[in-house]
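User: Cysteine hydrolase family protein. Structure?
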Amino acid sequence: MASHTALLIIDYTNDFVADKGALSCGLTGQKLAPHIVELANQFVKNDDWVILPTDVHTPNDPYHPETKLFPPHNVRGTWGREFYGDVAKWYDQNKNRDKVYMYDKTRYSAFAGTDLDLRMRERHVDTLHLVGVCTDICVLHTAVDAYNLNYNLVIHEKGVAALSPEGQTWALDHFKHVLGATVVD
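Assistant: Predicted structure:
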């Protein structure tokens, strides 16, 4: 890995991954945990950044577009917004490191309405590795914004999951052929 890289672990929360999550991709999402933890450990070992952009909402917010599309999810202070499984354990063990932190986001993209781009530029990050859920929603929108901001993109196929197989296939193809991302196993 280059010295100017960051791993973004996107929305790996109970609401998006656990069986009883409000918008869960279920088993396909749950199976990602070992690969995500392995990658996160590699990034920490290499003294690179590990950022966890995480959706946060207020229930029934009349001004938020997702209120019309999805049931309440990732509400601050709830079980649904907590990290899922082994990723939660990994975060608890690493959250006090200088280069590991959770990052609130309120839209699909980790860049929309946040200062993530500024933080990455300050740290001279030019390559983003993306994992998490959902491949065809939040991972995709983050990738599109990162592309438009001129970041190099690496998508870890074994680290992303969608709500449907069709969404997964479409998004992986889009990463490769429209965003010029490198998709790795």
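DSSP finds seven helices and six strands in the chain. The longest strand covers residues 152-161.
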